[in-house]
Amino acid sequence: MAPWPEVGNSHSDPKKFIEETTIQQSNEKDKGSSSNNAPSPVSKIELLPSYSTIALIEEPVAEQDPWKMSNGKDTEIKWSEKNTTEKVIAVFRAFGKVIFLLIFLYFFVCSLDILSSAFQLVGGKMAGEIFQDGSVLDNPLAGLVIGVLVTVMVQSSSTSSSIVVSMVSSSLLTVKAAIPIIMGANIGTSITNTVVALMQAGDREEFRRAFAGATVHDFFNWLSVLVLLPLEVVTDYLFYLTDAIVRSFNIRSGENAPELLKVITDPFTKLIIQLNEDVINEIATGNEAAKNKSLVKTWCITFKNETLRNVTVPSPENCTSPSFCWTNGNMTWTLMNTTYEENIAKCKHTFVDVNLSDLGIGLILVALSLLVLCTCLIMIVKVLNSVLQGQVAIVIKKTINTDFPSPFGWLTGYLAILIGAGMTFIVQSSSVFTSAITPLVGIGVINLERVYPLTLGSNIGTTTTAILAALASPGSTLHNSLQISLCHFFFNVSGIILWYPVPFMRLPIRLARALGDITATYRWFAIFYLMFCFLLLPLAVFGLSLAGWPILAGVGGPIILVVLIVLIMRVIQARCPQILPKKLQTWDFLPLWMRSLKPWDGLVSLITGNCCQLPCCYCCRVCCRVCCLLCGCPRCCRCSNCCDPLEDEEKVNEIPIKVPEVYENKAVVVEETQSGSKKQEAQDVKNVSNCTAL
C-alpha cells in the first residue's frame, strides 16, 4: 500500500502525483496480463490527495462597528444611460415621494400637537394642583422634579413655563423658586423624542442609533442640572444676571410672538380639539371655581361688556366711594363696574358637544394621536429609505456629516447649533424639531456627533420663542415673565459652555452611545429608562421632599454616596486598575444580577412571555409589536414574522472547520485481487481513508 499523502504537501504538485499513479497502475496491469499464473499482491491502494484551494480553517469575520456609517453603494442606473421614458418616470416618482414625505411630516407634527393637548386633558388639572402648594416649591429639589413631572404630564414646556409665569405674576411664587422649575421643564420636554425613538425598535441597528440620538438630549439636560442647580442654589447667579439685564433695558410690552408653524397646523388640529388653557393657570393660582371647569373649549367667540351697575355690598365700608353709597333698609347699594360675558358662537371641533369627561376625551386622543404618530413615523422612515439611496444618499450624508476644511473644522459644530436654533424658532417647538431628526439618526443620515450640536441649538431656539412671548406680556407681568425666560436661556447657554467647547467634556455623546448599545441588546431597558428617569425618580424625590429635608437627606445622601463610589471605581478600573486590590479590579465579586442585565432579561422574558399566548397574537400585529418591545420578541410570537428575533446569537468559541468537497468526491483506487473478498476489502479501505481525511 502506498503511503498516506501529507496534508502539507498536497498542494505542491498534484498533477505530477496523479500522473505517476496512473503510469504505475497501467504498468501493473500490463504485468498482470503477461503473467497470468504469477502471484499478485493482495491489494494495492492509492489515495488521491486533495488539491483543493479551499482552506480547512475559516478565519473569523471581524464584526463591523454599528456606529460607523456606511456611505452606501450607488446601484442606480446613471441618468445619462436612461431613455426619455425612464427619465420622466424617475422625475414623477421623486416628486411623488417628496409630496408623500411632506404629507406624512405634516400629520406627524399635528399628532404631536394633539398628543400635547391630550396629556393636558388627562393631567392638566393635577398639574395645576401640584403647583398650588407654594411651601413645597421653596425646596429646589422639589421644584426641579415638579417641573419634570408637570412637563411630562402636559407634554409641553411652554405650558409649564406659562403656569410658572402666572404664579410669579400673582406673587404666589418668587423668581428664585421658579428657576429650578424651569430647569425641570427643560428636562421634561426631552421625553417626546425619546418616545419617538421607540417606534424604530423593529430594527436593532436603527434603534441603537435612534435611541442614542434621542437620549443625548436627556443626558445634556440632566448633566447640566447636576452642575448648575447646586451652583444656582449657592450663588443665585442666574437670578442676579437676568435681573440686571432686565433692569438695564427699558423694555416695553410689544406684539405677540410670531406664529409660523401653527399657521399651518392649527386649521387641522382645531378641527379635532381646542383647549381653554387658562383653566390650568387659574387652578395653579388658587381659584377653586376653576376646578369644576372643563378644559375643553366650548365657546370660541364671546363678547365681554363692562358696565356700571348698582350692586349690593355687605356694609358701607365696601362702597366704591362715599358719594356712590346709599342704604335702603337692611341693604347697602353702590355703583361698581361689572363685566358681563356673552357667548356668541360655539367652537367647531369634534368634541365640542360630546358628553364625556376631560379624562375620557384625553385618553381617546392619546390613543388616536399615538396611532397617527406611529403610522406617520413608520411611513416617513420608509419614504426616506427609498429616497436616500444611491448617489443621493452619499451626497447628503457627506454634506451633513462632513466638517469644514482645516483649520476651520471646529466651526462646523457651532454652525450646527445655529441651524438647530433657527429651525426650532421656525417650528416653535424643540420637541417637534428633535422628534423630526430622530428618524434621520436611526436610518443613518445624521451621525451622533452631528445631532448633538443640533440638539443644543434646539434648546436655545425654544428659549428665544419664550422670550418673544414674554415681551408680549402686559406691563404688570413683563418684568417677571421676561426674567424667567432669560433664566431659561442662560441656563442652556451655561450648559453648552460646560459640555460642548472642549471635546473631552462632551460626555452626553459617550453616555448616549453606551445607552444605545444597552437598549439594542435589551430593548425592554428603554421602557425602564423612561419610567425611571421621568416618572419613578421624580415621584420618589417629590415624596421625600414632602416629608422634609431631614428625611430627604437621610435617604438620598447614602444613595448618592454609593453612586459616586461606583463611578469612581469604574474610572479607576478603566484607567489604572493596578492600584486597586485584585478583588476590586473587576466586578466579578458581585452577584451576576448586580453587574449584568442578563438575569433581569430572563426575568422580564418570563413575566411578559405569556402575553404572546393570547389569541390576539395569532391575528393581530399589535400584540406582537408590544411583545417585541417588552420581552424581546420571544419564539412564541406567531404573527407572520412581524419582527425579527431580538435575542443575540451566542458566539461559538470553537474554530469553524470547512470540509472540502474533494474528500467527498474522490474515489479510492483499488487493485483487485483474485481473492473472493476483494470488494469488501476495498469498501473498508475507502471508509478508513475518508475518516482519516476528515
What does this structure look like?
With 694 residues, the chain is mainly alpha-helical. Among the domains are: 106-267 and 356-547, no CATH class; 299-346, no CATH class; 566-610, no CATH class. The chain has 25 helices and five strands. The protein has a three-stranded antiparallel sheet, with no helix packed on it. Residues 1-45, 612-623 and 625-694 have low confidence and may be disordered.
Tertiary shape = globular
> What are the segments in which pLDDT stays under 50 over at least 5 consecutive residues?
1-45, 612-623, 625-694
Radius of gyration (CA) equals: 37 Å
How much of the sequence lies in strands comes to 5-15%
Rounded average pLDDT = 74
Largest β sheet strand count, sense and barrel closure: 3 strands, antiparallel
Strand arrangement within the widest β-sheet reads 2-4-3
What topology emerges from the helices and strands here?
Blueprint: H1 14-34, E1 44-47, H2 84-132, H3 134-137, H4 140-154, H5 157-169, H6 175-188, H7 191-197, H8 204-235, H9 237-248, H10 262-272, H11 278-284, E2 299-313, E3 325-328, E4 331-346, H12 358-387, H13 390-401, H14 411-427, H15 430-442, H16 448-471, H17 475-499, H18 507-521, H19 524-547, H20 549-575, H21 592-595, H22 598-608, H23 621-631, H24 662-665, E5 668-671, H25 678-693
Descriptive key words:
3-stranded antiparallel β-sheet, mainly alpha, disordered N terminus, about 700 residues, globular
Short description:
With 694 residues, the protein is mainly α.
